[in-house]
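Blinded run. Sample ID left blank on purpose so nobody reads anything into the name before looking at the predicted structure. Input follows.
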Amino acid sequence: MECAPSQLVPQGPGIDPAFQGCALTGAQPNAQTVSGAAYLQTTFEYTRSNLWRNWAVVIAFAVLYILVTMVATETISFASSGGGALVFKKSKRAKKSVKQAPSDEEKVVAGESTSSNTSATAAQNEEEALDQISSSESVFTWENVEYTVPYQGGERKLLNKVNGYAKPGVMVALVGASGAGKSTLLNTLSQRQTMGVVSGDMLVDGKGLARDFQRGTGFCEQMDVHDGTATIREALEFSAILRQDNKIPRQEKIDYVDKIIDLLELHDVQDALVSSLGVEQKKRVTIGVELAAKPSLLLFLDEPTSGLDSNSAYSIVRFLKKLAAAGQAIVCTIHQPSSVLIQQFDMILALNPGGNTFYFGPVGQNGSEVIKYFADRGVQCPPNKNVAEFILETAAKPVKRKDGSRINWNDEWVKSPNNAEVIKEIGRIKSDRSQKALQSNDEATEFAAPVWLQTTMLTKRLFTQYWRDPSYLYGKLFVAIIIGIFNGFTFYMLGNSIGDMQNRMFTAFLILLIPPTIVNAVVPKFYNNMALWQARELPSRIYGWFAFTTAQVVAEIPIAIVSSILYWLLWYYPAGLPTDSSTAGYVFLMTMLFFLFISSWGQWICAFAPSFTVISNVLPFFFVMFSLFNGVVKSYSEMPVFWRYWM
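Blinded prediction complete.
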């Protein structure tokens, strides 16, 4: 390395250049160049003989880490054991229930029938709750509904001229083989399709769908998507407060939630965390969250019996039947229902692959109406045969008439008087309901709650989520403390020599060890919350993008401030950096802003990426660019023009 004239010493007038030497460490007297080997040996005590030793150390560390990983993989299990006990939040109600000793059956006084009294009270509470279920006289109709999506450079039609209606107090089952379009039709009717082209008429009382249609309907996801850290009561109250009409008093909404909890028979576990619930209990919570919103028009359910045993499935369908009896209109997809379950439904809409209707009509006593439709066309249902299975098997296998021609069940339905009757009924509904339906003076709004209420409720839920899942916060604090200690005590009490000045720059640079760890923690947390919002809470019009983004940012501020304070205290003073208020205060402010930036940076990266795959691909790029162009490795003035003006 050749020294610049400014690095030669001594400096001054009349100095003989022959007696000037380089000020860099490792330079020989009166030498104006420094060899790289001498510089490294003097500055870092490193020689070329250390090369193979260091290489062996790196290989040894790699082998050690692999061995530890292998042993840990074989010996440590992170899967939860047992049947999964319910986890309750810490509350006075939970403590009180624990303190209450179970009653001794032998001490019950003769003549006192506690079970009968309890069952009578439960029946009365259920009846009161059903009476309060929001019901409406509005009728939802769909006519000639088609849905087309882009497919391999062309188009593919998933629904083909589907007709039907949903009346109050009627349960409609959407059945069909896998891939026939049951869930597609349900998502289309509930206005949840985000791609493709939807055509046809979907009307409420003969009028087009208003802006508040989605929040006026309930949609129960098949996967039971919820915030796992919320309790059952909190999940229902969150839905009720933000989705019921804003004019309804808050206490009235809470009282309604009490009724729904009693109706769902979840009173004893209302303070249990959703993540600890069983499959049937989660399904009840999913239904309860939608009922808490008081859907004024319709309740959609996507395969509510999937994943349940026969008893649990029957329990859920019986509960839906009670809702229908209370005046709730229900449209439900159901996969391979038993003969007992299919009898609970009032009507069936059966689809063939390609989204073609081949039956829509009443089920009848023991499936009599369905059996009659196919019997009139030459196909007899065997005695005691499951009607749902009979429909699907008949549509799947080739059936010939007496003259030898094959029956096309899609065309058979289109030409049948049953289809003509359905179209006639839809026309009658549109004509009658358009005259009877009252015009509301209230302007339809997309969200029931104002933006401020959405933001405060969601922010409160996020703080609760962080409190009940503290590993996320502990991870941030751990990184700040460990790296702060490592940085501060590695460069303990720096002096003012040339080497110390380099170390002062380097100790500030080491804060860049923090972003990869913090960002990789922020991304999955934000991604899960965003997935919940996009999958269920935005389509249900619970809250909008402003409330979501604001709550996510606000919830990160406290932990970012605490982490920055801990890191700064453990790094700044042990390193012996300037303690005057102006310098120390400025560095503290920059440290705090940097921690705030890390969290928001991780959220920004996650927000624009469509999937985890994209995120994992772009994160290394951001980290590398962040490390190279921060001004420490190369100052801003020395950067090439190409990078300087846009990086």
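Unblinding after everyone has recorded impressions. The longest helix spans residues 545-572.
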